[in-house]
Specification:
This protein is an alpha/beta fold. It is built from 4 helices and 9 strands, in the order αβαβαβββαββββ.
Length: about 180
């Protein structure tokens, strides 16, 4: 994809959730997470690259002791679909005996998040929670009925970008959640 194509995608996209509404959802999530995890000294794991913007916006609203690390595992790369999970970076901090909160941009089919959560449990995490900015509403979850513990926004089954979500590697920086025209 070249810059002209990327600009066309953005100009034709449907804005589904404004930047202001995303910020409201993140503030609500921070309150929910604080209520549940404030006394557990959790380890926050940002799922890169998609979770970067969401994590950055959320962390300053979590005003309790926590540690931060990141993981980088993907099925997509710069493609719009993928099958094999590829680990680029595993957590650097010890997970044994910890409450772990995974932060990611989206729960779509859930393959990546489920695999990361399983890894955390295998490494000795006592509990693993998932927080996502966006959850897509469809029936293709890796485990039927799979839900994140904390969800900011629920959106129908469209190809999304913005606020961490990308389209072929572009527009993670778009202010709001957009849907690609026709997808």
């Amino acid at each position: 994809m070249n810059i002209e194509e990327a600009n066309v995608v953005k100009s034709e996209a449907d804005l589904l959730v404004s930047e202001a509404d995303v910020e409201i959802a993140i503030k609500r999530l921070a309150q929910e997470i604080t209520c549940q995890l404030k006394d557990s000294r959790p380890l926050i794991l940002c799922v890169m690259n998609g979770g970067l913007i969401f994590t950055g916006q959320l962390l300053t609203k979590l005003v309790f002791p926590l540690e931060v690390d990141y993981v980088h595992a993907t099925r997509y790369g710069h493609n719009t679909n993928g099958t094999t999970l590829q680990w680029t970076v595993k957590p650097q901090l010890n997970l044994k005996g910890r409450s772990v909160l995974l932060l990611d941009d989206i729960l779509d089919e859930g393959v990546t998040l489920a695999a990361i959560a399983d890894y955390c449990r295998q490494e000795g995490a006592t509990e693993v929670f998932m927080a996502v900015l966006v959850e897509k509403l469809h029936l293709r979850k890796v485990t039927p009925g799979m839900k994140a513990d904390f969800t900011g926004i629920e959106i129908g089954d469209r190809f999304l970008f913005g606020y961490g979500l990308d389209y072929k590697g572009y527009w993670r920086n778009a202010p709001g959640i957009y849907a690609v025209k026709g997808l």
